[in-house]
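call fold(seq) -> tokens
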Amino acid sequence: MIPLSIIDQYAHSSPQRLAVIAGDESMSWHEFAERVRLVADAFAERLDNAADNRAVLLGEHSIEYVLAASALASLGVPWIGLDSQANPDQLAQQLTTSAPTLIVTKTPAPITDMALAGLPEPIAFASLAAFDGQDGSHLASWQKPTFLALSFTSGTTGAPKLAVRRNPSEVRRTETFVERYGFGPGDTHLVTVPFSHASGHGWARLFLAVGATIVLAGDADPSTYAATIEQHQVRTSLMVPPVLRSFVVAAEQTPEIDLSSLRFLLTGGRQLPPRVFRKAAARLGPVITTYYGTTETGVNLVADSDTLAAAPLSSGLPLTGNEVLVLGRDRRPVRRGQNGRVALASYMAMAGYANLEPDTVVYHGLTFFLTADYGYLDAHNRLVLTNRDDGLPEAAIFPAIQIEADLHEVLEISDAVVIRVPDRNGVPEVHAAIVLIPDADAELARKQAGYVVEHWLPEGTSHTISVLTEIPYGRTGKVDVVALRSVVCTGEPAADSSTVNNSTAVNPTGVTAVTSGARSVRKPCLCCSITTS
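ret:
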């Protein structure tokens, strides 16, 4: 996270002020400096200074995790946070790709022998615990290597890829946000995103770097965040949209809790439904800011509350040092207002992937990384996203985000996701999954959802409406598309579903295929090789 050179500054100027709070535990800046020295010395003892070192951290929110990450930052050893709850196959693949010389984890380690089999030797192991008996000699003689930073993508569109950065950008990024929002030592930041995701540790690092206090939410339910914010007078936080929605619902139900300390609430990684924004603004005030960016390019665009009120689906404008293009099929910029593939250029951008060539274009001397998103630039040059590449025809013009936003406007619907999957002939089918509010009129909700979806689809497009008990989200707010496809194809654990063709006919799977403007038809589903009807 942050190196000793920064920690020592605050340990000297404000030794007793709290740096980290985790439940009933806390750590002052003075203690932070002392403990990081011990951990860094222990890591230096375990590592060969001449080797191409890189570390993997496996763990959840804890003071020990912050210490380990800061010790590695002090040594200049690149580290990657991996999700300790990831499936074994993904964990094995990420370990093989990252090739760590040090693995820092809890005991027992959540790593199988299979995952370790393909790794280079030797590997040092360390526990997320306090280190005693270190004399500091190993840290004193350690020589920092050339800068290198590593991070895995979220894997939304495939297996996670390892992004490699060779130019440091943290200082400039921090200065940008301090100048824009005035962050500083007086802030308290609530960390809700797992450290295994770049945004989780990235924003925690930014606030520690300016001398703020960070509060680790751990695995606490979002319904508890309001009490945490009031207790610690939290001023800033990052919450992914599904978590933000749950937090706002709980905050609406507890009006007696004072949330006036909160002045900056960032969200991103998925489009924020306008209805959720309005509810958040009503309960919290004008504190919402959305960001758009990728693991490959950093934080590139932001939209503040005024922008979101005027243009609810806008991703805002680029921050200084960032550029956005919308490209056509010929990979050249399209006209303003025309849909195309979003490409980003930034001083924060990676050098490339570890084992894969990135998809880039060079325009006016800048290297732009093509994202998996489609969108357009509006009349004010703000980016508006429309869909994510799903590998199917006409992805560039399919308005998934607009459909989802309109579904969220249905009063009986609390959450909604729209995806496309191919039938056995490769023809895209549209699947809308909705979750209802308690005691909702399910019949009315189904019909209204059907009207919304049909409004945006060309006549003859096959689609389904599935009523689910919940949307399958990953830990960082991304939709688990594989799980969702399984749900909409098998109907499990779908609560209910019906046609939206002016009739109601619930089938045994809970999912009904509908052809817009025509009679219902049986369609074979390619996504899980079963037949839905």
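Residues 218 and 290 are 22 Å apart (CA to CA).
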